[in-house]
Amino acid sequence: MVKWLYAAAAGIVGAGIVHIATLLLIPAVTDIDTWTRLSAFGNLNEFHQIELTGSAAASIRALDPTFQVAACRFDLADGPVEIASPESAPFWSLSIYNRRGENIFSINDRTANEALLDVIVATPAQVVELRKAQTPEIETSILAETDIGEGFVVLRAFVEDDSMKPAIAAFLEEASCDLF
Q1: I need a labelling partner for 90 at 20 to 30 A (CA). Which of 17, 98, 157, 175 fits?
Q2: Are the beta carbons of 127 and 98 closer than 8 angstroms?
Q3: Which of 96, 62, 91, 107 is nearest to 167 (CA)?
Q4: pLDDT tens-digit profile of 117-132?
Q5: How far apart are CA 3 and CA 6, in angstroms?
Q6: What sign results for the dihedral spanned by CA atoms 36, 40, 41, 45?
């Protein structure tokens, strides 16, 4: 009887370990990640508004219905990327993710210079070159130094009420994600 209990306990523990390992390995082995889903919206270095439904929205975790969301894919191999908007919003937040979907940088209007969206994403070598060039544009920009090659940006803007939707839509439409 003890042998049967030991065998059953070993089987349950073994099945649990296999189950947990499988769940933890799924993100590493799947090809359908957020980067791939966002590629369906369009080219690199272009913001695309994300609706609250659909596969891309499902992969951007914690979408809040009180926020409008836009996303942009980029590749730093082509050079630094500047994320900016001439418009403003009562509250916005920007998150930069690597290709695997890990958050590497976040900022919002409360921590940005004069609440304006102006962030330059660059590799460490590109940051050195930008500082050497001493262009006036980088004096007011926030430099997000990262060692990733490809990534994506998620820009969220708070919609206080329905009357704010046109202003928030203008903010997201005017946002750029261009090579610097």
Answers
A1: 98
A2: no
A3: 91
A4: 889 999 999 989 888 8
A5: 5
A6: positive
Question: What tokens appear for 21 in the block?
Answer: 């390992």
Asked if residue 75 lies in contact with residue 150, where contact means CB atoms within 8 angstroms, the answer is yes
Three-class secondary structure of residue 164 per DSSP: helix
The amino acid that residue 165 corresponds to is: K
146-167: per-residue pLDDT in tens? 988 899 999 999 998 888 888 8
Calculate the dihedral angle through the C-alpha atoms of 149, 124, 174, 154, rounding to the nearest 10 degrees: 50
Q: State the CB neighbour count (10 A cutoff) for residue 48.
A: 17
pLDDT at 64 over 80: no
The secondary structure element, H or E, covering residue 9 is helix 2-29
What CA–CA distance (Å, rounded) separates 172 from 85? 8
Give residue 15's pLDDT: 80
Region 12-41 average pLDDT? 73
**What's the rounded Cα separation, in Å, for the pair 113 and 109?**
8
The DSSP letter of residue 29 is H
Number of alpha carbons in the 13 Å side-chain half-sphere of residue 147? 0
